[in-house]
Design a protein that fits this description.
The protein is built from four helices and three strands. The protein has about 110 residues and is of the alpha/beta class. The chain has one domain. Strands 1-2-3 form a three-stranded parallel beta sheet.
Length: about 110
């Protein structure tokens, strides 16, 4: 029998594999990365459930306007209860970030 943790991880990986993970892939065209930091640095951030106080959504358009070009989204955790909380926002955050023109990636903690 497959453990709950492995099932959640497998479903997360499957969902990520079958969805575009960058604006360039989502649009099937080239999307240049604009430099927006000091020198050649590209501004980015990591986000998780903690950026959703009282279930508030993140304003990715405002972040993009401020110069943010990528986000790393916490997709899973090493504990089952934390996994459920992380997974609540993964798909929506990815979709909204990409709609705002922000590149997305995922991480496991």
């Amino acid at each position: 029998m497959i453990s709950r943790q492995r099932l959640i991880s497998a479903l997360t990986i499957t969902a990520l594999l079958f969805n575009p993970i960058s604006p360039a892939l989502a649009n099937f065209g080239e999307s240049p990365i604009l430099m927006s930091g000091p020198g050649t640095r590209i501004h980015g951030a990591d986000i998780s459930r903690w950026q959703h106080p009282f279930d508030k959504s993140i304003n990715f358009k405002k972040m993009q306007k401020a110069g943010l070009r990528f986000v790393m989204i916490k997709a899973s955790d090493s504990r089952d209860d934390s996994d459920q909380l992380a997974l609540k926002y993964v798909a929506t955050d990815r979709k909204l970030a990409q709609e705002a023109g922000i590149y997305t990636g995922f991480y496991h903690y």
